[in-house]
């Protein structure tokens, strides 16, 4: 469905994208990782749930499902955290390597430039993948402001289109 100008018709009018969810084995152990290693804010708002965020309104709801009930995420289904500089990303990578046994980080990728960001990925004790990255200021606002860079069939719509795979 499209409107008179050919834009997609909006069947719903959301106020905002408010939250996502992830699973954990044990809220107390995972909270330590989120607060100490990731540097995020946490508040336990339910018997088996906790909100996680880093400023702003949007948050992650962490749900304790038990030791043998967690569904591990795939690498491309991850949570991204922006750091202030490339140096901060490198320092975070060094900390991940040095403290992987303390925080039960079981996989860590190499640091490098990928899809226009300087970053690395790592997997926590619950099978959730995270990304520490440094990107140019307002990257996502800029990308939305520029509009689609690729057609539905993958054909570039403008010269120099950034492939963000």
Keywords:
single chain; 165 residues; alpha+beta; 2,3-Dihydroxybiphenyl 1,2-Dioxygenase, domain 1; 2 domains; 5-stranded mixed β-sheet; 4-stranded mixed β-sheet; 22% helix; globular
User: Which H/E pattern describes the elements?
Assistant: EHEEEEHEEEEH
State the CATH architecture of the largest domain. Answer: Roll
Q: What structural category do the secondary elements indicate?
A: alpha+beta
CATH topology name of the largest domain:
2,3-Dihydroxybiphenyl 1,2-Dioxygenase, domain 1
Query: What's the story with the biggest beta sheet?
Result: 5 strands, mixed
- Any low-confidence stretches, pLDDT <50, length ≥5? none
| Residues in helices, as a percent range | 10-25%
Distance between the termini: 27 Å
Broad shape? globular
Q: For the record, what CATH class of the largest domain applies?
A: Alpha Beta
Q: For the CA atoms, what is the radius of gyration?
A: 18 Å
Q: DSSP helix count?
A: 3
CATH superfamily placement of the largest domain: 2,3-Dihydroxybiphenyl 1,2-Dioxygenase, domain 1
Proportion in β-strands: 25-35%
């Amino acid at each position: 469905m499209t409107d008179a100008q050919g834009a997609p018709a909006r069947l719903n009018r959301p106020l905002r994208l408010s939250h996502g969810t992830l699973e954990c084995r044990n809220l107390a152990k995972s909270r330590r990782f989120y607060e100490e290693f990731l540097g995020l804010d946490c508040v336990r708002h339910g018997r088996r749930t906790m909100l996680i965020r880093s400023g702003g309104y949007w948050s992650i709801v962490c749900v304790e499902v038990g030791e043998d009930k967690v569904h591990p995420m795939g690498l491309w289904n991850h949570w991204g955290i922006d750091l202030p500089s490339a140096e901060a990303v490198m320092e975070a990578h060094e900390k991940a390597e040095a403290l992987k046994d303390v925080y039960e980080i079981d996989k860590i990728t190499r640091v490098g430039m990928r899809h226009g960001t300087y970053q690395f990925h790592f997997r926590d004790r619950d099978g959730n993948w995270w990304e520490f990255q440094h990107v140019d200021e307002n990257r996502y606002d800029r990308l939305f402001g520029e509009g689609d860079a690729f057609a539905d069939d993958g054909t570039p719509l403008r010269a120099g289109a950034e492939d963000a795979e």
